[in-house]
């Protein structure tokens, strides 16, 4: 059920109410003028969804519109200021101006490390620098391995142990013995957590 049964005057009132109340949100709860279109769309969608509950014998359409929009505004404020997402706890917008390492003025988004989000959320436990150092350490250990062990490691990058054994023409047990020797080399280099 949409607004088709409402008068143009009532629809114009809804448009004006949404326009006015969303404009008042700018500068509050961390919302900016760039959020206006999204807020208006959210208000219209909510109003359209809730209009199926409207009972013309209990209230006027304008009263219903005003209450629904006011409730939605209140819910947005409450949602955006909850402890976990309070805009005041954040360092600001990613579009804010800041200085980079060279002293140039750039957007905040340009100076945040690529892995900052992953580190903050726990999705990634190592920084880019740690990944680079780890790759270097693994490459050094791989270079020190005898040829049969190095060949097994190369195959294990893309193959299962059984498939690697078949390609090397050795038994699975022999592949397991070689893998144990590889582990010993990594343990000696203090890289046992990575194999």
Kindly describe this structure.
- The structure is a single chain.
- Helices cover 57% and strands 3% of the residues.
- The chain is mainly alpha-helical and 195 residues long.
- The protein has a two-stranded antiparallel sheet.
- The chain is elongated, with a radius of gyration of 30 Å.
- The chain starts with 7 loop residues before the first helix and ends in a 7-residue tail after the last helix.
Biggest sheet, spatial arrangement of strands: 1-2
Residue share in β-strands: under 5%
Runs in which pLDDT lies below 50 for 5 or more consecutive residues are none
Q: From N to C, what is the helix and strand string?
A: HHHEEHHHHH
Summed up, the helix count is 8
Average pLDDT rating: 81
**Estimated helix fraction:** 55-70%
**Rg (CA only):** 30 Å
The chain-level structural class is mainly alpha
Sketch the major β-sheet. Answer: 2 strands, antiparallel
Cα-to-Cα separation, first versus last residue: 60 Å
Number of strands: 2
Q: Tell me, briefly, the overall form.
A: elongated
Total of domains? 2
């Amino acid at each position: 059920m949409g607004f088709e049964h409402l008068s143009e005057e009532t629809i114009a009132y809804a448009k004006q109410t949404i326009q006015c109340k969303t404009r008042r949100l700018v500068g509050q709860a961390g919302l900016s003028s760039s959020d206006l279109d999204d807020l208006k769309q959210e208000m219209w969608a909510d109003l359209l969804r809730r209009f199926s509950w409207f009972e013309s014998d209990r209230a006027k359409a304008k009263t219903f519109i005003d209450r629904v929009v006011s409730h939605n505004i209140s819910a947005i404020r409450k949602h955006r200021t909850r402890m976990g997402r309070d805009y005041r706890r954040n360092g600001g917008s990613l579009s804010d101006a800041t200085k980079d390492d060279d002293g140039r003025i750039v957007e905040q988004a340009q100076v945040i490390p690529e892995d900052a989000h992953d580190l903050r959320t726990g999705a990634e436990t190592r920084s880019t620098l740690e990944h680079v150092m780890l790759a270097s350490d693994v490459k050094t250990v791989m270079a020190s391995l005898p040829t049969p062990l190095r060949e097994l490691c190369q195959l294990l990058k893309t193959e299962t142990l059984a498939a690697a054994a078949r390609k090397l023409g050795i038994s699975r047990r022999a592949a397991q013995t070689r893998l144990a020797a590889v582990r010993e080399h990594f343990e000696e280099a203090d890289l046992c957590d990575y194999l």
